[in-house]
Amino acid sequence: MAASTSHDPNLAATPDAEFINVLMSKGKRNTAAYIHAECSKAALGMHSNAALNTVKALLEKILDPTKPISDWETIDWCKWLMAGGSTFDEFDSIVKDYDNATTCGLVWTPNFVAYRCRTCGISPCMSLCTNCFKKGNHEKHDFNMFLSQAGGACDCGDTSVMKESGFCDKHGPKAAVNKSAAPSNLMCVAEAIMPRIILRLIQYLRENSKVGAPDFKTAIQEAEVYLKMLVDLNNMGALMRHVMTTALTNPQKYRGLMDPSTYAGESRYDVYCRDSYKTYQDAIKGLPNPEPPDEYKECASLQEQLEHKTFLEELVFWTVAYEFPQQVVCLLLNMLPDPDYKEALTRAFVLHYSRISMMLERSVDPDTLSNRVVHVSVQLFSNESLAVRMVDQLKLLHVMVISLKYMMSKILIQNVLHDQDKNFHYVVDCGRQVMKEHCYWPLVSDLNNVLSHKPVAQRFMYDDSLLEMWFDFLSMFQGMNVNQREMGEHIEFEPNTYYAAFSAELEASAYPMWALVSHLRSPSSALLTRRVLSFCQTALQDWLDAVNFNDPKVNDSLQVSFHLPLHRYYAVFLCQAIRQKCATLNELLPSTETLHLLMMHPLRVQEYIFPKDLFAD
Question: Ranges for the UBR-type domain (predicted)?
Answer without folding.
Answer: 102-173
